[in-house]
Amino acid sequence: MTQQGTILIIDDEAQLRKLLARLLTLEGYTILEAQDVRSARKILDKSDIHVILSDVKLPDGNGVELTAQLKSSHPDIEIIVLTAYGNIADGVQAIKNGAFDYLTKGDDNNRILPLVSKAMDKARLQFRVRSLEERLGGKHDFSQVIGKSPRILDAVNLSRKVAATDATVLLLGETGSGKEVFAQAIHRASARTAQPFVAVNCSAFGKEILESELFGHKAGAFTGAVKDKKGFLEEASNGTIFLDEIGEMALDLQAKLLRVLETREFYKVGDSKPMKVDIRIIAATNRDLEKESEKGTFRADLFYRLCAFQIHLPSLNERREDVPLLAQYFLSQLGPKNNKRITGMSGAFRQALENHHWRGNIRELRNVIERAVILSDGPELGTDLLPLEFSHPENDGPAPLSLADMERKHIARVLHAVNGNKTRAAEMLQIGLTTLYNKIKEYNIR
Ligand SMILES: Nc1ncnc2c1ncn2[C@@H]1O[C@H](COP(=O)(O)OP(=O)(O)OP(=O)(O)O)[C@@H](O)[C@H]1O
């Protein structure tokens, strides 16, 4: 298989096959040829094919029917059907049967090449996703970190290196930039892979609750503590604990966490004996902990412990070249998940994604694609399926807005006004910090 992928051309007209083969070979694809369904099946048994170009009328079958059969036996292969001039009905039926699209014999190269390239992108992503799912049972590892930009590749390289050690890691990046994906990938690439990975969002709990969730408690430690309870640290024993939003942790809890980092020991709430735990710690934040430790809002000693190995995850705005790749990746996942047969995105849709300022990073992109997939009626995603702010970038879109839109925009403005300080934003909004975090997640606000 070459870098570009492998295409099988099924046509009984040798001359047409040769013509297409020559054209596509020049583009760097590997071409295999079959003159009928029987020989095509033989090739499919032996080779990894990404895209098939198939004639409708074949000596021993029909390309439109073959499409339906192949989409159930080889769902990751994308099929383009070659219809006779003027026979749109065949093309339409082929798409209904799961074809990526159809070409009319006689179409020029300007139509053939972009279409084949789109089908190839889609098929290759599907192959990649499938092989990962098979290998990992759906879990994250580095091959599931989509992106080719130098910045993301740097982050992956660093993470791979540190994964082999037991070092504490601090992941830095904006919300939705993939900190949890990286934490999981580091765990999976480490010697602890068969042991638990426990993720804790430190902002999701009030201070007392976080302490007992993290360290566990003894029966009778406080009202309602009827039984001994294991904490997340104990649950993650021999594995990895991922402490997300560590900047939100209260100062006295930070002191207790520092003790874990230094001695691998902690006290359950209400216990006088320390517990030992063998654990790897990965922490993450979207805040500037160095600044906060200078101001005294984050413990400097804990910061120095954590920052020994920092990995900065680029925001999506810093790696715009990855936007189309990620969009295509989500489309190939979310189309089937939502029972939609969507073959691609219009050029304008793609452009709008590339121009957008992504405050919620990859999470926002994923949600934009999912929304578009759910709303779409046709085979291609167009700009009409994009949310309002795409046409009104500065959040000043005219009415009508739903109540949810208003809430989202208001929260985003307040956050902007306080430079992203969530504690202050929650105060201004007069809501709890946890509620604010839930809303930020729900609305993809950064
Ligand atoms: N490189 C990537 N390739 C593919 N999907 C990704 C990648 N990075 C993140 N995602 C997806 O984006 C979403 C957000 O990722 P994740 O939860 O890891 O971000 P985060 O930085 O931990 O966010 P938060 O700070 O809000 O906790 C998830 O759906 C995740 O699967």
Keyphrases for this structure?
446 residues, alpha/beta, Rossmann fold, Helicase, Ruva Protein, domain 3, 5-stranded parallel beta sheet, binds adenosine-5'-triphosphate
Describe the structure.
The protein has helices at about 15-25, 35-45, 65-75, 90-95, 110-135, 150-165, 180-190, 205-215, 230-235, 250-265, 290-295, 300-305, 325-335, 345-355, 360-375, 405-415, 420-430, 435-445; strands at about 5-10, 30-35, 50-55, 55-60, 60, 80-85, 100-105, 170, 195-200, 215, 230, 240-245, 265, 275, 280-285, 310, 345, 380. Helix content is about 45%, strand content about 15%. Strands 2-1-3-6-7 form a five-stranded parallel β-sheet, with helices on both faces. It is an alpha/beta fold. The protein folds into three domains: about 5-135, Response regulator (Rossmann fold), CATH 3.40.50; about 140-310, Rossmann fold (3-Layer(aba) Sandwich), CATH 3.40.50.300; about 315-445, Helicase, Ruva Protein, domain 3, CATH 1.10.8. Adenosine-5'-triphosphate (ATP) binds next to helix 7 and helix 15.
